[in-house]
Amino acid sequence: MSAENPVRILIIDQDRADRDFIIAALEAIEYVKVVGRAAGGSEALTKITVLKPDIVMLEYELPGIIVENFLAEIRRVAPDTEVILTSESRRTSAESSMLALELGALYFVRKPRDVTRDDYIRYFSKYLRPVINLFHVNRTASRVRQASKNIVVPRRSVPAAPARTAAPSAGFSLLAVGSSLGGPEALHKFIPRLPADFGLPVVVVQHMPQGFTASLAEHLDEVSKLIVMEAAGGEKLRPGYVYLAPGGRHLVVQKDRGFNGQYRLGLDDGPAVHGCRPSVNRLFESIAGTVRGNILTVVLTGMGEDGLDGVRALKEKGQCFCITQDEATSVVFGMPGVIVRHGLSDLSLPIDSIAPRVSTLAEVPLGITPNIR
Length: 373
Fold this sequence. Notes:
Elements: E1 7-12, H1 16-27, E2 32-38, H2 41-51, E3 55-59, H3 67-77, E4 82-88, H4 94-102, E5 107-111, H5 117-148, E6 172-179, H6 183-190, E7 202-206, H7 213-223, E8 227-230, E9 241-244, E10 250-255, E11 263-268, H8 280-288, E12 294-299, H9 308-316, E13 320-325, H10 334-341, E14 347-349, H11 351-363
Parallel strand pairs: 1-2, 1-3, 3-4, 4-5, 6-7, 6-12, 7-9, 8-9, 12-13, 13-14
Antiparallel strand pairs: 10-11
């Protein structure tokens, strides 16, 4: 990774030792430049206004601030600045942290306690490097996309089925969804709009730290007509249920040996895929290698390219219809955008239009979808 155009980061933390440890962890990443530090909210806002950092590392429990309001203030004085929240796990509400992520925080990292300085630095480096890497790559690539946006347009482009495979004509058997940065808000605009009689099982990967997906599932379940739950592994896929990958673990679909033609969910603690665990690619590729029939996929807002290889694997089997969230309504057009640019998106839609279209598709055989636009 080149050190040119480094990711500029400001640290906001009341604890001097924590600030020093976090800075040491960040400075070990070659494409990062720490541009300042602050111990309180007013000092921090002044420095954010002047320095305009790419990322702010913000302590969740900073005295004298309400995190949601402070995030809004950061957006006001520095609209292009992203926020990574840090916190002591024993004092943090998972529900409040999830809300902060919904409101635009880039990521959330728990502070380790009762560890040595070296272990603290290794811990932060482990969890920060992947997300900052994704930010660095996406921020650089966005300049290229900006220059070429007039010639890159969403288009319908279902690749021809291989000669050995008949064109699919049966209905869909599964809905698979992937999302990342901005995803909790997008999922709240998508999942609750699916009808109570929606006839497909739904599996979802949302990039989120361990401990926060259960709260997201609870929120979605409260406002949805379908039953939404965090996957525990071993569940038999059933229509009318939405299964959310738990933070920090891959979600996969497996054959159920005890039931002919049935599938169960599995959890995988294998390595991160392109810095992501759970990974959209890992879920989609498990579906491509396991599930018979046609798969309906939706890729929502998110940073990076997770989902591209998975959609490609499904397309190569001739069994995938892919809807991507459009650029105008995406917080970050990385994940849906890369699928569009590779010609693998069949429809690119605003977030509010996706649920109605998915509901229609779930009821119609795939063979007659060319005129649905």
